Structure of Glutathione/L-cysteine transport system ATP-binding/permease protein CydC:
Amino acid sequence: MRALLPYLALYKRHKWRLLLGVILAIITLLASIGLLTLSGWFLSASAVVGVAGLYSFNYMLPAAGVRGAAITRTAGRYFERLVSHDATFRVLEHLRVTTFSKLLPLSPAGLARFRQGELLNRVVADVDTLDHLYLRVISPLVGALVVIIVVTVGLSFLDLSLALILGGIMLATLLILPPLFYRAGKPTGENLTQLRGEYRQQLTSWLQGQAELTLFGASQRYREQMENTELSWHDAQRRQADLTATSQALMLLIGAAAVMAMLWFAAGDVGGNAQPGALIALFVFCALAAFEALAPVTGAFQHLGQVIASATRITQITACPPEVTFPQGQTERPTQVALQLSGVTFAYPEQPQSVLRHIQLSVGAGEHVAVLGRTGSGKSTLLQLLTRAWDPQQGEILLNGLSLSQFSESALRVATSVVPQRVHLFSATLRDNLRLAAPSASDEALKEVLIRTGLEKLLEDSGLNAWLGEGGRQLSGGELRRLAIARALLHDAPLVLLDEPTEGLDAATESQILALIAQVMQGKTVLMVTHRLRGLSRFDQIIVMDNGEIIEQGNHAALMAKQGRYYQFKQRL
């Protein structure tokens, strides 16, 4: 239960809406009980008085009460659903935003141990499961408790002993069955949550790795593993359905026993009246209707195990301390950037070998530096350290003579433009995809940067309103690279980090992009990771890395004259 406490605190923000939903639910339940109770008594009393009661029996007042209860029940049910779902969706929105805001400081270091499918499942499915806490647990439980009190007090005016018998049966049912079915349903709920996460993770991995799995002949084996997980998931759902049916059957049995008890005891005496007549029907129908208020409670506590398991899974992520922390307050944004790396050594968590070893690098303000090396030599990791995605275990990174850790996150992000290897295309308009880098950029500026990066074809149909991503136009690998470069140009930061910006481009487009980088990024400090050696003569420094170390460093002419590793690379072209 402790796992739910942080999420119950979020409900305080919408407590009045939630309270109104509970009140409307109680009014609806009481109106339903009143309708059936009054109707049963009214019909029985009318039958007892017969024709002789046309002038002595008041038909109008009970009839008006029946109509009033029916109208109240219908209106109460409508507004209860309206208010409760509105409050639940607001809580869910707040929960999603809160969860995501706690995930952001963890990225990427704190989230590296979670797979993408697992993260998606926890952020989406597990968060959605928490909405059961109000609709299926809190509201039915409070409503049932209030109904027991009101029914017992109301019937006590007619017969105290019968009221206490019915109230005692209902209270015992409320105190015994929910904990019983919570215990019975907890293992199944936890298993359901775990299997759901495993299945969605396997499905995501299978879809993303379809080409590789097919190429190596592992697709069928992976599919069988996924089907086995699905069968286990279905089996857990079947067990939960059986438990739900058992709880409903037991509730019907107890309700029927309560009705029979009311019929037995009321037949002998009601409030000292040895011939109670229609009052027998009143107590019987009241018992029948009152147990409808208890029906959702056992099922609610049966699902509580699944809710707690989802809350625990979310807390496992959100409670993690961030690996990288930034100082509070604003730091002045630098207009120019000079970098100094002194003895930087870095290893990924739980990895025995260092990715970078004793890196010594000095980059002056406005210098353009190309970083070469084979895959796995630490080039991309070097760029990640400059954005403080990670912090080095040894050494220091200085930006304009100040430690990188002294800059606030906003100042560092404003001062840095990054073109990553994997460029994300959002399902949105072309304008929205560009304005991620510059929210205040005009349409003219967006069109200009598209033309400069060779993406003018994207403007042919719907212009900046063209829909990209899912349900719209998909971009090729080269177009995605140019889109990322366009974002970097719009961001207009003094430090530009490019990770394979020309990968996937043809020779002509590559030359165009390199010329564009040299032209528009004059005065900016540029570090570009690349495997391709075209156009490197434009760079002020060229660094060759291997096994996490800088093995060669200098300008193009000096490295060619040295005839070292860089010279060998050039000779192979």
Remarks:
- The chain is about 60% helix and 10% strand.
- The mean pLDDT is 83.
